[in-house]
Amino acid sequence: MSRLDQVKRSLEAAGQAHVLRFWPELGEEQQEDFLEELLLLDLQRLREHCQAAAEAAAAPPCSLDRDMEPVPPEIIGSVKWSDPSSLSRWEDEGFLQISKSRVAVLLLAGGQGTRLGVPYPKGMFDVGLPSRKTLYQIQAERIRKVQQLADSRHGSSCTVPWYIMTSEFTLKPTQKFFKENRYFGLDPSNIILFEQRMVPAVTFDGKVIMEGKGKVAMAPDGNGGLYQALVDNKVLEDLARRSVDFLHVYCVDNILVKMADPVFIGFCVSRGADCGAKVIAKAHPAEPVGVVCRVRGVPQVVEYSEIPKETSELRGPNGELVYSAGNICNHFFTRTFLEDVAEMFMDQLKQHVAIKKVPFVDSSGNLVKPTKPNGIKMEKFVFDVFPFSKNFVVFEVVREDEFSPLKNADGADSDTPTAARNSLLSQHSRWVSSAGATLLDRDGTVIRPASCSSADQHPAECEISPLVSYFGEGLEQLLKGKRISTPFILDEKRVEEPQEQ
């Protein structure tokens, strides 16, 4: 049986014979490319995938409020209310593990910059900082700095490997970008790019959508595709070869992310956790972020759309929101836990429905760009493994210090390049003020700290390179007592003589 006959039979068995409708109209090279693409699909499970998508889209919304309860305080640590000695102890533990090269970071970077309005991966985006650094460069420099800090504490020569999960859309541009920028000073052998799976988009009646006569409409399988990708690309074996025991997993679009955060790592390790989540306090009940909580006694993230209004507005005795632990896609995993997920729990991961507008070719072969949603993309989420944890912990951080996502183009209500830039500049202005320096605007007028504290305002143009300071440390000896004119960039070259007036 030829490869084409094999594919035909599989498609017919799955009820998807229409996929080859335009086969005779394709050129020989197009046919070969299309055949290769179809052979990469899991044709044996295609019927199951399409039926599950249609059934999930037709199912009524899930309401979990009767089974929800907040995470108990005994599994929570917090930069706001944990005592300073505990925070210091957790930081020491985190740096110790980093110094032993037992910590890696793993970046979820499979999504495109569609909502940003750019045709390239989000990590390559320049939000308009004075330095013009991209998200990838900022993150690479934070890795370099945290390695340096760990080495200076312990006299080590450590490595924090950087694993980057891409997709079909982002792999090659990311590879090229890193090479062109000489890997931002990191050893290329410690930057491991790998690709997540793609899955077909499906119509509401369970048919694979064709985006071209010889092209199935495909989409990444969500950031929860991480677990299958770890297996497909032998990442777990690579982690074991490097003797990495702990992973810090995060999403590419958070400009304030602390790479391999020693305090978070140390807290999780000290508690013997196999899985952990950073959270922020929700700004208000209707904020569109998932909530870390317990459902039927096990840890879970419940999406904001699944929580009734009256439940989201519940308040405790001191007026605090009962369900306030906002998920920010910032997680801790042990390698052992990820190995268990791969071996035992992969098939139990929940599928989530995303209703999208998917361009397609109609029965006559004409390209149609729909004006309303016409298709289903099935996704898995990275937090779907929380229920399998044997020792789950939560760590609360301050939004202004650690969370400012980049999702939308300027002009949107939130999560824009301007908001991300202002968040970082505001943070750096606070660092400079805390170090005992005074910032001056272009006219020489003192910029008061209060006007540096809100990303909603126009903060001082004050940027501190991650190569100088990872999280505000070490600045007092450089800046105390100085009057600094803005715009101001403090990088490695200017550490000895920062610009001042």
CATH class of the largest domain: Alpha Beta
Strand order of the largest sheet: 2-20-12-15-11-3-4-5
How many domains? The number is 3
- Sheet/helix structural class: alpha/beta
**Unreliable residue stretches:** 451-456
Choose one word for the global shape.
Answer: globular
Mean pLDDT: 92
How far apart, in Å, are the first and last alpha carbons?
80 Å
CATH topology title of the largest domain: Spore Coat Polysaccharide Biosynthesis Protein SpsA, Chain A
CATH superfamily of the largest domain: Spore Coat Polysaccharide Biosynthesis Protein SpsA, Chain A
Give me the Rg, rounded.
Answer: 24 Å
The major sheet is characterized as: 8 strands, mixed
Report the strand count. Answer: 25
**CATH architecture of the largest domain, please?**
Alpha-Beta Complex
List the helices and strands and how they pair.
Elements: H1 3-13, H2 28-40, H3 46-58, E1 68-70, E2 76-78, H4 84-99, E3 103-108, H5 135-154, E4 162-166, H6 171-180, E5 191-195, E6 198-200, E7 202-203, E8 210-212, E9 215-216, E10 218-220, H7 226-232, H8 235-241, E11 246-251, H9 262-270, E12 275-281, E13 291-295, E14 298-302, H10 309-312, E15 325-334, H11 335-345, E16 352-356, E17 360-361, E18 367-368, E19 375-379, E20 392-396, H12 399-402, H13 417-434, E21 438-440, E22 446-447, E23 462-464, H14 476-479, E24 483-485, E25 488-490
Parallel strand pairs: 2-20, 3-4, 3-11, 4-5, 12-20, 21-24, 23-25
Antiparallel strand pairs: 1-13, 6-10, 7-19, 8-9, 11-15, 12-15, 13-14, 16-19, 17-18, 21-22
Helix pairs in contact: 4-5, 4-9
